[in-house]
């Protein structure tokens, strides 16, 4: 066993550490220690089997209710799954069952898991234009939606730029054409509820049918973890599967699901509370503002958009983003390279401190001066 442990520990030495503050590429962070404890206490449980593990079902119901409250609809129904990809597949499956049609319309900024979801279900994915701020262009969506459209997908916190699509306006299109409207809030779901001035994006918008969010991002719980919520419980009847060896029907995409994920979310919600999350988000947003202003002050760099969440994307007309990405990595900074639009993306997470932002800006300034 000692040899095995040495092998895996040696492999782990190749990994970057969040606590170093050098990782600006990830939408994940170090999970809360309390969330880890919750996961470990339920590490051998299965959320599928409530006969053996009734405790997990109780916790899952509490988690869905609390996150439903966070998203302005405590009566929402859903389940804890593996993350945004599963949630998007599930939502489009449900959308097709409820609003029969073979087309899905989404802005070009939509997460690539929607491409997967449509390919798996043989749905035609029609991508629409973005406006000058990289949000969904409502007129472009109007042009593409028709009576064969089952679902429209919008994003509350896009992966590339962190912007929020105009969900209220898109909801009017979904209403006019009687479409299922799904909101991918995989990243924004644990940020937006704790910001003071944001456009309406959640179940407050009457036409929003489902929302997916990932607690393993800004929710600070272990990977994998995701929640998918739907507005009406009766909708789940359309996808319930009556397994012959289970005592209850199963309105989920996955069968076996780790009870540890359920417990870790519940522990995190109770340990931090909404106010604790608010403080985490406030810290990240303050550092994001400092980072964005610092980048703006560097010659030959420009922001793509003003940050709406804790995401900063910038580019340069003088040096290709791919070159900046590679050079920063060689200097010990891990950032993301966006290809659409071509840019550098930085995500400010709870593992970042003011000293990390200051050090990064100094390195970036020095790098640009040397070009």
UniProtKB/TrEMBL annotation:
GO MF assignments: carboxy-lyase activity; pyridoxal phosphate binding
Entry's SUPFAM superfamilies? PLP-dependent transferases
Known cofactor(s): pyridoxal 5'-phosphate
UniProt KW keywords: Decarboxylase, Lyase, Pyridoxal phosphate
What is an annotated GO biological process for this record, any one? carboxylic acid metabolic process
Gene3D superfamilies for this protein: Aspartate Aminotransferase, domain 1 (3.90.1150.10), Type I PLP-dependent aspartate aminotransferase-like (Major domain) (3.40.640.10)
Q: Which InterPro entries match?
A: GrpII_AminoAcid_Decarb, MfnA, PyrdxlP-dep_de-COase, PyrdxlP-dep_Trfase, PyrdxlP-dep_Trfase_major, PyrdxlP-dep_Trfase_small
The PTM N6-(pyridoxal phosphate)lysine maps to 217
Q: Which domain of life is it from?
A: Archaea
Q: Which residues cross the membrane?
A: none
For the keyword Lyase, the answer is yes
Q: Which family does it belong to?
A: Belongs to the group II decarboxylase family. Sphingosine-1-phosphate lyase subfamily.
NCBIfam families assigned: tyr_de_CO2_Arch
Instruction: Please give the name of this protein.
Output: ADC
Q: Which species is the source of this protein?
A: candidate division MSBL1 archaeon SCGC-AAA259D14
């Amino acid at each position: 066993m000692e040899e095995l442990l040495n092998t895996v520990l040696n492999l782990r030495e190749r990994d970057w550490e969040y606590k170093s503050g050098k990782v600006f590429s990830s939408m994940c962070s170090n999970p809360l220690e309390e969330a880890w404890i919750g996961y470990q206490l339920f590490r051998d449980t299965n959320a599928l089997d409530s006969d053996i593990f009734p405790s997990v079902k109780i916790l899952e119901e509490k988690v869905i209710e609390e996150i439903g409250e966070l998203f302005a609809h405590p009566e929402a129904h859903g389940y804890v799954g593996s993350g945004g990809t599963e949630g998007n597949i599930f939502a489009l499956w449900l959308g097709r069952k409820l609003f029969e049609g073979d087309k899905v319309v989404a802005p070009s900024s939509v997460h690539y898991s929607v491409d997967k979801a449509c390919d798996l279900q043989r749905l035609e994915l029609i991508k629409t234009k973005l406006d000058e701020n990289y949000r969904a262009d409502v007129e472009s969506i109007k042009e593409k939606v028709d009576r064969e459209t089952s679902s429209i997908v919008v994003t509350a916190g896009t992966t590339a730029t962190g912007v929020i699509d105009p969900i209220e306006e898109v909801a009017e299109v979904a209403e006019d054409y009687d479409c299922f409207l799904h909101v991918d809030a995989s990243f924004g779901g644990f940020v937006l509820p704790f910001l003071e001035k944001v456009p309406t994006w959640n179940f407050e918008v009457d036409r929003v049918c489902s929302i997916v969010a990932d607690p393993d991002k800004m929710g600070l719980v272990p990977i994998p973890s995701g929640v998918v919520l739907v507005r009406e419980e009766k909708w789940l009847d359309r996808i319930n599967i009556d397994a012959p060896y289970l005592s209850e029907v199963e309105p989920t995409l996955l069968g076996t699901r780790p009870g540890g994920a359920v417990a870790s979310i519940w522990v995190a919600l109770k340990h931090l509370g909404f106010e604790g999350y608010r403080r985490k988000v406030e810290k990240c947003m303050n550092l994001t503002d400092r980072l964005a202003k610092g980048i703006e002050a560097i010659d030959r760099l420009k922001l793509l958009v003003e940050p709406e969440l804790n995401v900063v994307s910038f580019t340069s007309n003088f040096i290709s983003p791919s070159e900046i990405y590679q050079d920063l990595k060689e200097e010990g900074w891990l950032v993301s390279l966006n290809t659409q639009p071509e840019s550098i993306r930085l995500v400010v997470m709870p593992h970042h401190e003011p000293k990390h932002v200051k050090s990064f800006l100094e390195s970036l300034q020095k790098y640009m001066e040397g070009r």
